[in-house]
């Protein structure tokens, strides 16, 4: 029986892994292995093999949530940490400004009492 040619172009490992990285970088929340497989046109086993290889290279990481592996892009995690630290700095500055505003109101009321 003759072999039926595949309609799909065979991709190199680097191409597939770059596609996975682009997919994970395009979202800001984790994805399951099945979702990565569907988005990149792979079966679950192939997606898991590529994700495991990417994890060994330090390009992605995963957390087990229930029975599922949730995959994160390392850069997304760094961005989240940066946003969190910036948020803390903004909150600290807001607190300083509120204290200064309170102090100004206190001094204004003292000046108003002295001028009476």
Structure description:
- By secondary structure, the chain is of the alpha+beta class.
- It has a domain at 13-73: Winged helix-like DNA-binding domain superfamily/Winged helix DNA-binding domain (Arc Repressor Mutant, subunit A, Orthogonal Bundle), CATH 1.10.10.
- It is built from 4 helices and 3 strands; from the N terminus they run αβααββα.
- The protein has a 3-stranded antiparallel β-sheet with strand order 1-3-2.
- Helix 2 (33-40) crosses helix 3 (44-56).
- 13% of the residues are buried.
Radius of gyration: 27 Å
Tell the overall outline: rod-shaped
- Relative helix content: 55-70%
Class from helix and strand fractions: alpha+beta
CATH superfamily of one domain: Winged helix-like DNA-binding domain superfamily/Winged helix DNA-binding domain
Beta strand count? 3
CATH architecture of one domain: Orthogonal Bundle
- How would a crystallographer describe the biggest sheet? 3 strands, antiparallel
For the largest sheet, list the strands in their spatial order: 1-3-2
Oligomeric organization of the protein chains? single chain
CATH C-level label of one domain: Mainly Alpha
- Strand % is 5-15%
CATH topology of one domain: Arc Repressor Mutant, subunit A
Number of helical stretches of at least 4 residues = 4
Low-confidence stretches: none
Report how far the terminal alpha carbons are from each other. 107 Å
Overall pLDDT score: 86
List the secondary-structure elements in sequence, H or E.
Answer: HEHHEEH
